[in-house]
Batch of 2 targets.
Target 1
Amino acid sequence: MKSKLLSIKIGLFISSTFLLTSCFKGKNVDLIIHNARIHTFNEKDAIFEAIAIKDGKIVEVGAERQILNRYTSDDEVDAGGKDIYPGLTDAHGHIMSLAKKKLGLDVTGARSFDEVILRVEKYQARNDCKFIIGRGWDQSLWSTNEMPTNEKLNQLFPSIPVCLTRVDGHAMLVNDALLRKVNINSTTIIEGGQIILKDGKCTGILVDNAMNLVTNSLPSYSKRDIKNTILEIQNELFQYGITGVHEAGIEFEEIAYFKELIDAKKLDLNVYAMLMPSKKNIEFAKKKGVYTYKNLLIRSFKVFGDGALGSRGAYLKKEYSDQHAHFGALVTPYDEMKKIAFICKSINYQMNTHAIGDSTNRLILDLYKMIYATKRDHRWRIEHAQVLDPIDFKLFSQYGVFPSVQPSHAVSDMRWAETRLGTERMKTAYAYRTLLNQTGMLAIGTDFPIESFNPFLTIHAAVQRMDIDNSPSNGFQMNEAISLNDCIKGMTTWAAIAAFQEHQLGTLEKGKDATFAIFDFPVGTSREFRQNYAYMTFIKGKKVYTTE
Ligand SMILES: [Zn+2]
């Protein structure tokens, strides 16, 4: 009897020690990060201190002791109380355009046309190109505030073709040598574009579709150069904690660039690529359907509704305030857009249409209405949604349309947008608060390389409605400001939903990708712009960037 009791006691002792040690040792995981402020963006917007990660997924997020008691890992990071957010997504960017911009001449920020010319001369002296390609000029930064003309370029480069694209990518300045090469003269007629003349002669300014003739004749960069530059860009994105980009329009050939970099295990960035509606891309989409290739997801088309406001290509309901009888124009004919919409509907693709002017926005909202009738949760997007007739805002919620906006545009355009639109229309332009109130969600991006992809500039523009110089001092149209939390959700949770990736990305919760960034400084906002960087960036549990 006695010995039986003893053996039971010993048994109890053994099993409880075993329990204790196994509890003490915890479950083994690949990575534990603790002593952090982890903004989970779960339903309760909970903030926790620690996170356990295994096989690229989040095992658990919770209180410091809870995680450290339950799990062990050879790889533990003490985050020193820093902020952790889900990896940021730029919901509208152009990696390919930025790569090409980096490979060519950059004239961004030039404060006069003379400075542009000077940069072209210096660039050519160094590179001795047979074809000069540059990008980034913006006449609204010059005291003249007028579109440039090509005389100086003709004098300097009588036989070498020169092509300088405006910062917004919707206009370019080319010299006569290039106009001759592509057979453009003062009598050429272009649908959905303009060849600007002065005294009956080409000025060298081509707007929207008029640029296509030139774009098709530009020499292409080598695949190797482009791929290396994409990796350079990836690293710059990681430095800001950006782990994903919605690539707003790629050509068929460019799909291969991303796939090859993924195969070489060099591209970790999540790329949600929207296809340009070319014949080859439409064939691709019909054949492949919703297409996932590791971290590349393709299930949408990007369509250009109209041009940009800066080059007066945005299509407005009423004439431009600074150009009589000018309305801008559609760059893709309506029937063509309708055709693409039906293709998208039939293959379960999303349609993402660039719409700047109020007229284009209304046309597209009405076009999307037909899909809403059959599919409530279609998530078709309007990219930019920049100028809206007040009576059209409600259509976003009525037809379930997802606005994809770029707050940096508001504070870049504020200097001249009112000249184009007049006071009344200006009140409902760059109206992110009103859009958010309609839909409850915004996808937020930058449209890089038109703007910098620095997400802290986006936060400053969205929340303080100020540019990098903290101007204007009381904020631009403050009634349209959004909160810091909503702005970050636009770059995380809502961006994931806007790309059908919410099962995997956008919040830090059990089962989702361990894709997040630890930031150097507390992520906040103030009337003084404060720069911030990622201290470490992780994608699927892999450390892709660190300052250490
Ligand atoms: Zn864009």
Target 2
Amino acid sequence: MSGHAGLFAIVGARVIDPANGIDGERTVLVRDGRIAGVESPGALPSFDGVRGERIERIDARGLWLLPGFVDLHAHLREPGEEHKETIATGAKAAVAGGYTTIVAIANTRPPIDNAALVRFVKKKGEEADLARVLPAATITLGQKGEGLTELVDLAEAGAVCFTDDGRPVANAGVMRRALEYSRLVGRPIVAHEEDLGLAGGSMHEGEVSVRLGLRGVPGAAEEVMIRRDLVLAELTGAHLHVMHVSTAGSVRAIREAKSRGVKVTAEATPHHLTLTDEAVKGYDTNAKMMPPLRPEADRRAIVEALQDGTLDAIATDHAPHATVDKELEFDKAASGIVGLETAFALTLRAVQRGELKLTRAIELLTSGPARAFQLDAGTLTVGAPADLTLIDPEARWKFDAKKSSSKSHNSPFDGWEFSGRVVRTFVGGRVRFEL
Ligand SMILES: [Zn+2]
């Protein structure tokens, strides 16, 4: 991999930068790891201050140049379950998928509930030196849903958000206090919405679960908690971010709250955008995730909400599991799938099927998530970090989960054929993945 340390220009690519309204051929100049200019083709000599310097040119004709992707939701399993993933292997899978910034979710063993652990995640990310790894911290101590963590200390140590993901915050009073404290630090409370009294099944509760004889989780398990937390977000004026939205009812609740000015952002996963509960037929445990895959009407509602802005981001919920945790009876198997290396292809597939507009799809992977968490990422604005992803839009390829950079291979998309592929990823102007 070449370093491209000082000064270089990427020429000939179709640049798509939704935050700046750019979609067309441009020359992108990078200097000292930051975007130094985005100019019309042929304008290279006019860049200020570079006349006479030797500029390395990277020929990117036929490719798309996008801001590096931003994932608000990746489980990296370190500390505690390094046999499933480490921060380094997760960050490697990230750059292979075109991601340059990922938020490491906090439900590790132990959970990230103190400043020392936040610093540990940050340091491991820096040592890996691949994608930028931003730590999340938990809302409650030990993720027990009772005592709050020291949100101010955690934010100072580098936590970009607070989440008990993997579990809901069951007690409304605890959630209210968390939202109140989160205002002091200006970081979102990020919610896994699941009413445990309605949960406990292994797939969506509906026609398919009845046919398969599996216990289901109704959409209501998600919707009642989202509605509760929207009420609390309104009460406190705090920023609530809703993770992995999966039902039409959830979308309606968020849309209505946004229209009234409640400070809420939300994400959906590539799998909820792609698959329905029909994928569970055959009892493939790689179709088991929480929230579960839903019926087609819900999938369509998610697509519509991603397109119309009700949902702000596509987030992977990358959830590596060892084979032994997945090769079990359906109701005993672990929930979740790896997602960093297929997210872009699945998002582009939605574009190819006419479900999402291309620029909106790119926005949902870049400036959409960055804005939701107020991160300095996801754009090609001059001065921004040169985090870039090059795509070959014509490349046809087959996802082989076994060859993934992740330590785990639990994916329902193993063997799927896609067109459009990440071919190179730059982080801070340095090549961190190359096909
Ligand atoms: Zn979750």
